[in-house]
Amino acid sequence: MSEVVVIGGGAAGMMAALYALRGGAKVTLLERNEKLGKKIYITGKGRCNLTNVAEETEFMGNIVRNPRFLFAALSHLDNSGVMSLFEDLGVKLKVERGGRVFPESDHASDITRGLDRELHRLGCRVRLNTRVTSLLQEEGRVKGVQLESGEKIHADAVIVATGGQSYPTTGSTGDGWDFAEATGHATKPAIPALTPIETEETWPYALSGLSLKNVRLTAPGPKKKPLYSELGEMLLTHFGISGPLALSASSYLPEESAGAKLILDLKPALSDEQLDQRLLRDFREMSRKQIISVMDGLAPHALAMAILELCGIAPTHPVNAVTQEMRQTIIKNIKRIELTVRRLRPLTEAIVTRGGVSVKDVNPSTMASKKIGGLYFAGETLDIDALTGGFNLQLAFSTGALAGSSAAQEGE
Prior knowledge:
It contains 13 helices and 21 strands. It is of the alpha+beta class. It has a 6-stranded antiparallel barrel.
């Protein structure tokens, strides 16, 4: 019977422990916090968006980095498998807008408790408030772990599931990077993903709190194809932009994002020509009024004022004195507002971490290291990340399950 040690009691670690136990292994789960699943408690604003019911093609389209690496893991435990697993553990689920799956109770704690109960039922040795400082290596294999206390725990296989570096207060402080590098693995630097964006332009600051609906945000690419372009909602803030579109865009920006451009289209349903026709119609109907009267029909007043300022047109300018050149400037500043990235908000505010253990050093069929025997990786420690909507937790569960099943076969 294999002895497996799992480092990290988050989503990936708990699932790794569960699947290793189901594979017949003896499992010790080590968690540095005072309870399991600390990060799970804050996902989905405390409701835990655990997966998404999207079909395979759509699901893969929501994985930003290294989707091909994840085919085997998602085959091992896909979204329907995760839903069945939790239903079997007594956690009733529901599907909401966008295919997002939540516990029926809206309590993230139900997910953690369901896994915790099953781990204990299967005889998992869970040790809380226990931090691993290094991996034990012998003859080209990982043979266990050393704890902060000095204690050594020997094992046939070790699974590193220590998470990324976002929300460091939950214990995700990058230990996995250290363990990987100490055993010869390449790592990608930790960068915030799914995080708000600070802009050089200051006009959003004055409109902080304004929510924009049905707009398009585009991150132009080096060639004709954009890095990112989506319709949806966005929030203006005291430092720049946030909300779903901004968070998603942050995951596609270059690693050195400062100076990158974003294009905001406030009227994506209208072409330039259609918007021009609407302006001409409004100008005819309000020819004796001020230009702000027309702009108020196109955007909330504060935003309308900001657009006119970008255009260099006074809000009191008479409609009947608007030139064709002014009209084209208005169209440009409604359809193509340019925003310049100052920086991404820090890892402490990011939903997930971009970067981690290079997938080139990990076998996608097993989650085993290609560099050293007896070592496995799962979850956000790997250089994988996805968009919001339950996709990141699914990746944690899937890679954890595959790592656990594979590790259980070590030492047999």
